[in-house]
Amino acid sequence: MASNTLIRAAVLGASGYTGADLIRLAARHPSIKIAALIAKGHAGQPLAQVFPHLVSLDVPKLVTADEVDWSGIDVAFCGLPHGTAHAEIKKLPERVKVVDMSADFRLRDLGTYAEWYGGEHSAPELHESAVYGLTEHYRDAIAKARIVACPGCYPTAVLLALLPLMKSGLISSEDIIIDAKSGVSGAGRTLKQNILFSEAGEGLSPYGIGSHRHVPEIEQELGAVAEMPVRVNFTPHLVPMTRGELCTSYVRLAGKAAAADLRKALADAYATSPFVRVVEEGVIPATQHVRGSNYCHIGVFADRLPGRAIVVSAIDNLVKGSAGQALQNFNLMYGLDETTALEQLPLFP
Ligand SMILES: NC(=O)C1=CN([C@@H]2O[C@H](COP(=O)(O)OP(=O)(O)OC[C@H]3O[C@@H](n4cnc5c(N)ncnc54)[C@H](OP(=O)(O)O)[C@@H]3O)[C@@H](O)[C@H]2O)C=CC1
Ligand SMILES: CC(=O)N[C@@H](CCC(=O)OP(=O)(O)O)C(=O)O
């Protein structure tokens, strides 16, 4: 690609949280021109009216998808609710590449999709060709894809930690317990009772116990590398903080493996991955260490229970968990350095 060619991007769901973070990051991307911002209820408003923190950007106002001249768009970033995205993506010209942050193209089996997402998929032919966008594990396929399905925020944190361990046979495919915590921005901007300040603040509550829709996604990916069905116990919790996600995975060691072997396998797996850092021994991953960045921090700890280990992974749900990973995938799809526009360090304290 010539260095002066700008890629014209549309953002669907530009009035939502993932859309806003995508715009924040893409606005500083040297190869992207933000050509269309698409909303539903907020259509017609200037972006800065919805997101005053983005007032310094020179971007088009929010419009509906029908108002866009798609002949002027090369790529669409989609931050629409799951269950809605597939129908909107189906309408796009075939020429337009898609980086989808919703769940609509993540599950390989459409029966599983219908079961967990409560409806039939309207674009099975597109679904067939979509590539699962866990960047560090599917770079080659992502680079060639038209539609990339970015993983859910919890699956991103869990799979970055566990996939290399499952692949190398260091952990058992049985008895995996994942205790996950997310900030309230993970629930999106749409008003819901459980994310009201007065109800989410000063408390900590599990939800989706035994039935969260990220379970089949995690099992799909772990099962693919284990080459056998894998079942996990996954319980998410809502934490009264804005951003961040921490997943603590309790695993059974295979054979004579020890925590040090797990640490080495992860360090080897991510030796050339700029955004995944296996923390030094003695350091404990925390959401504060990755806030606002595209990094994932992973730590491995011996368990005092024999034959078990604890793997902790932390991400920012809106960056590595959605918009940042989406931009990382975009970079691969266009043959760009995968770190482009994502190099900012975490915001701390
Ligand atoms: N929040 C997070 O941490 C993460 C979210 N995701 C996924 O990303 C997607 C977006 O999430 P998030 O940004 O949090 O959601 P928000 O609720 O913050 O935003 C949703 C956006 O979609 C638009 N929208 C809502 N309904 C429709 C519809 N029927 N047709 C067209 N547009 C519609 C809204 O427009 P308007 O407000 O103008 O009506 C808004 O721009 C979801 O699929 C979510 O699962 C993935 C990873 C992490
Ligand atoms: C706190 C909170 O509600 N989090 C969301 C996860 C958001 C996400 O990343 O997942 P999707 O992309 O699959 O929506 C949830 O548990 O549904």
TrEMBL record:
Pathway(s) per entry: Amino-acid biosynthesis; L-arginine biosynthesis; N(2)-acetyl-L-ornithine from L-glutamate: step 3/4
Gene Ontology CC entries for this record: cytoplasm
Annotated catalytic residues: C153
GO molecular function: N-acetyl-gamma-glutamyl-phosphate reductase activity; NAD binding; NADP+ binding
CDD domains membership: AGPR_1_C, AGPR_1_N
Record carries keyword Amino-acid biosynthesis: yes
Localization annotation: Cytoplasm
Record Gene3D superfamilies: Dihydrodipicolinate Reductase, domain 2, NAD(P)-binding Rossmann-like Domain
Protein keywords: Amino-acid biosynthesis, Arginine biosynthesis, Cytoplasm, NADP, Oxidoreductase
Enzyme Commission number: 1.2.1.38
Classification via InterPro entries: AGPR (IPR050085), AGPR_AS (IPR023013), AGPR_dimerisation_dom (IPR058924), AGPR_type-1 (IPR000706), NAD(P)-bd_dom_sf (IPR036291), Semialdehyde_DH_NAD-bd (IPR000534)
Catalytic activity: N-acetyl-L-glutamate 5-semialdehyde + phosphate + NADP(+) = N-acetyl-L-glutamyl 5-phosphate + NADPH + H(+)
Gene Ontology BP annotations: L-arginine biosynthetic process
Semialdehyde dehydrogenase NAD-binding domain ranges (all copies): 8-145
Family to which the UniProt record says this protein belongs: Belongs to the NAGSA dehydrogenase family. Type 1 subfamily.
PANTHER family: N-ACETYL-GAMMA-GLUTAMYL-PHOSPHATE REDUCTASE, CHLOROPLASTIC-RELATED, N-ACETYL-GAMMA-GLUTAMYL-PHOSPHATE REDUCTASE, CHLOROPLASTIC-RELATED-RELATED
Name the record gives this protein: N-acetyl-gamma-glutamyl-phosphate reductase
Source organism (scientific name): Methyloceanibacter superfactus
